[in-house]
Amino acid sequence: MKRQRPQVPLSTTAKSPLLPPPTPPQTLLKSRTTTTTTIQISSKKSKRTILKPTTTAAVGKTTISSTNWAPLGLIQAELFLPLTFPTGQTFRWKQTGPFQYTGTLGPHLISLKNHHENGNVYYHIHRSPSESAAKSALLDFLNIDISLTDMWAEFSVSDSRFSELARHLQGARVLRQDPLECLIQFLCSSNNNIARITKMVDFISSLGEHLGNVEGFDFHEFPSLERLAMITEQQLREAGFGYRAKYITGTVDALQSKPGGGAEWLSSLRKSDLQVVVDALCTLPGVGPKVASCIALFSLDQHHAIPVDTHVWQIATRYLLPELAAVRLTPKLCSRVADAFVSKYGKYAGWAQTLLFIAELPSQKTLLPSHFWTINEKKSATKKEQSRSSQDLQASEDSGK
């Protein structure tokens, strides 16, 4: 399923560097009492240096701003952005236009979009110290060496349901994120929803270097481990992180104690077996098997990692292990679920599971034929349709008066 990297043309480099636009004042997340505070928190007890969000880009760095969108060499079946970015893999990319998402990869600020006519993928570099480095980072981030269409075709031969889902959900690609960035994001995900996770991740991101503003969104380079080490648990708690605050600061401390550095230690796990990776990650505060599997799948090249939660358990008991439908999920059964996915889909089982998971998201159900919906979902859709019809009828009667 490996594919050669496309020789994509570079977009035109502008003659003058991009100037960072004005940045709105930064505020912290709402706390449980719905009040907001600013980041300038004094903490006499803490030994950590108080870190403030950055609101202006660094001066003096070589930057470029491309004036045109350039083709990335991917069709929609290989990458459909609405099925890749807002589905729980990453929480740092923002929708900045129709079928368009913007984010940062290291020091690079980049937008991606599916063309409105043919769905082909285009990219636009807003800011980067090196355009070639930005392109290379983007291709790596998108796991470009793996052919999604070849993979889906192979899975579809032995799984008719997957085959039909794949036709309606083309382009749901698994990303290859920076391990540290992925780890911190999923520490925020524990017992949380996507909207709140995103706010937490935005707060942490704001502590990195400001790279620019696109369509009203501020974008920052993700803070380094050294910069993360300057955040206090108290700051995070006052920002609304709750119990996750101690896990983040504890994990940062644990990573800093690793020989050779925490970032290097995380990257080295890409060369290890999955169980070794999961066991190693689970030594970090706040990381359990499910979070470890997410990090392994989305950043450490463990393409057969299966993050098992109640949603994946429901998928497994419905289609792979129906004999366990009435059984309660336990840690031991999590391993059985993962084994069932790997047995059916092989070394890219994590990619298959990702598509099956996306197919269960309420936001994506509308893309599927009604026979993929549950009875309750059909009833809910019927009620909504009846409500719309009633509103339309009332509006028609009112306009005729």
Brief overview:
By secondary structure, the protein is of the alpha+beta class.
The percentage helix is 40-55%
Distance between the termini: 64 Å
Order of helices and strands: EEEEEHHHHHEEHHHHHHHHHHH
Structural class: alpha+beta
CATH class of the domain at 177-301: Mainly Alpha
Q: What general outline do the C-alpha atoms trace?
A: globular
In angstroms, what is the radius of gyration? 22 Å
CATH architectural category of the domain at 177-301 = Orthogonal Bundle
Give a quick account of the main beta sheet: strands, pairing sense, barrel closure.
Answer: 5 strands, antiparallel
CATH topology of the domain at 177-301: Endonuclease III, domain 1
Number of strands: 7
Poorly predicted spans = 7-47
Number of helices: 16
Order of strands across the biggest sheet? 1-5-4-3-2
What portion of the residues fall into strands of 2 or more residues? 5-15%
What number is the mean pLDDT? 84
